[in-house]
Amino acid sequence: MNRIETILTIALLTAVPAFCQAATGELKVKAVNKLEIARSSQTIELSADQLAPLGEKDLRKIHVKDASGKELLCQAVDTDGDYHPDEVIFQADFAAGATNSFTVTVGKKWDYTKDQFKAYGRFVRERFDDFAWENDRIAHRTYGNALETWKEEPLTSSAIDVWVKRVPSLVINGWYMLENYHLDHGEGADFYSAGATRGNGGDGLWAADKLWVSKNFVDSRVLACGPIRVMFELTYEPFDVNGTKVSEVRRISLDAGQNLDHYQVTYKPERPTALTVGIGIKKKDVTQTDAKISRGSFSTWEQLRDDKLEESHLGQVIVLDPKLLVKTTDDKLNYLVLGQASKNNTISYWAGFGWDKGGQFADYDAWKGYADEFARGALSPIEVSVSAD
């Protein structure tokens, strides 16, 4: 074999692995709904490790098709804040007890259009350090450090505020731009006053038969900003908990098509101690409650008045794994679900709301049904397996 033949042989042998990889450049995903209830807008998460056989490090190039060959919207998510996505998410609807299949391939980097976004959030410096977020069903804001010293209307609170929506379109930027979000111009508005309460699912720590809460957040970090999921972290300075200083980081995520946010909270006490978390819903104007906490949910129904003083109703809910439940209780401001933090001082729960004028829930029974099914789904997530077959 002469020198040229040797070089060609080496080149061909070197190319074989790349050729074989390209020839098997797709993965099969099987996703199983083990509950006998239909589940819409379920988010499927695929980790970088699961996607590694595709040989593509840039997860923004991952594409997914359903069993019929329809392309599904995908989002690459950076869960640890290192600016490199480490998972890909997409959504699908599931019939009761159904198994869905998908095909994953590599293609062009996703280039989204504005109308594809169903989840969004941002830090709002122009409104005294609010952080606001939304999806196609609900919207929220919570309060930053600058609001504590605003001369006009100062507020010290780590509550979760509620903005009700009539439309699936994203409204945050428009409402802040016009500065009239307490008036309903056909999209919804801010009719809810969280104040110093826990609002819709804000947390604190329970000790000596009392709820201890942080002040306004002092730092924020956005990890994902649509089109399917918004996810961010809020940092709170140490606050007193019955003589012990504890700091807190809330990681909050909200997916398209859902009425509940997922909270993953990490506490850092100045010395080792067992922590009991109090998750709250504001008590004022509540007319009905339903503590099905044995099945994971605590829901309420309350009166809400709009800018024209017309009455509507707001359903709220807290969803917690019953294994973490300590008890339910209340104080002057809040209904409270108490849960035990883990040994590493973290807790995971869901909280959210629905508005009867939003067109999703006509009455309390409809809201309770949704809350109950969401709790069942949270405790039995879609089971996902990935293969190269």
Q: What's the overall geometry?
A: globular
Number of structural units classed as domains: 2
Number of helices: 4
Radius of gyration: 24 Å
Mean pLDDT: 92
Question: Would you count the extended β strands for me?
Answer: 26
User: Would you list the SSEs in sequence order as H and E?
Assistant: HEEHEEEEEEEEEHEEEEEEEEEEEEEEHE
Strand residues, percent: over 45%
Give start-end ranges of low-pLDDT stretches. 3-23
Largest sheet: 8 strands, antiparallel
Q: Which strands sit side by side, in order, in the main sheet?
A: 15-16-17-18-25-22-21-20
Protein structure class: mainly beta
Determine the fraction of residues in helical runs and give it as a percent range. 10-25%
The end-to-end distance, rounded to whole angstroms, is: 39 Å
- Looking at how many chains there are and whether they match, the oligomeric state comes to single chain
In short:
The chain is mostly beta strands. The chain contains four helices and 26 strands. Strands 15-16-17-18-25-22-21-20 form an eight-stranded antiparallel sheet, covered by helices on one side.
Blueprint of the fold:
Elements: H1 3-23, E1 26-32, E2 39-47, H2 48-51, E3 62-66, E4 71-72, E5 74-77, E6 87-94, E7 99-106, E8 119-124, E9 130-135, E10 139-142, E11 161-165, H3 172-178, E12 188-189, E13 200-207, E14 210-212, E15 219-225, E16 229-241, E17 244-255, E18 260-269, E19 276-282, E20 286-292, E21 297-305, E22 311-319, E23 325-330, E24 334-340, E25 346-355, H4 364-379, E26 383-387
Antiparallel strand pairs: 1-7, 1-26, 2-6, 3-4, 3-7, 5-6, 8-9, 9-10, 10-11, 11-12, 13-14, 13-19, 15-16, 16-17, 17-18, 18-25, 19-24, 20-21, 21-22, 22-25, 23-24
